[in-house]
Amino acid sequence: MKDAFGLPQSLLVLGGTSEIALATARRLIARRTRTVWLAGRPSPALEEAAGQLRGLGADVHTVAFDALDPTSHEAVLGKVFAEGDIDMVLLAFGLLGDQARDEREPQAAVRVAQTNYTGAVSAGLVCARALQSQGHGSLVVMSSVAGERARRANFIYGSSKAGLDAFAQGLGDALHGTGVHVMIVRPGFVRTRMTAGLPEAPLATTPEAVATAVELGLRRRSETVWVPGALRVVMSALRHMPRGMFRRLPI
Question: What residues contact 161, with CB distance under 8 A and at least 6 apart?
């Protein structure tokens, strides 16, 4: 069960090699979390991540999970929940893609959409049902400010995150009053392996800063968290900007 501050004792990470997810796991282990499940494609990186978290004192398990195989989600995730209650699920897998290539190769674009949206819908619903059966827990969904308004530079990724964000909002409404808390996290540009080599956007942040915001959001039982917080105002302005003006921005 969660402690008095809303922090979890047990954590399931979907996207077990995500730098943001692992920074969040490290922060939560330092506070309260004792059992961690890292779900992802079997790889040396997944095992290395598990070993690092074990070194912090957590009981860490890995589970083979593929966002692109929704037919396996109920069985795979069901086995995790069968081992005991999960206080928090962190849905953190995602694919940035390559906008120029993805426009030329529609199947590559489909892979981005299926990972970021279809896979997340499937896994999110499976976990939401399990959390509801427990009667408690948090589902934390890693969205992105890219989903607030599609930009020419990354509209394929942005549209997939827009779908994920809308799904998470609706799921949060559907679960209101059940004891299950859905929190959407909207980071801006985060300095990770995924964004290495890309031009850094204003208000860029780090995995550790996102982890700090997630912890604060859990304590406050927030429904939406922006990282950094100033992006809430920036994106509100961009969202309402006339389309002709928006097109001329160097973004």
Answer: 94, 116, 143, 144, 146, 147
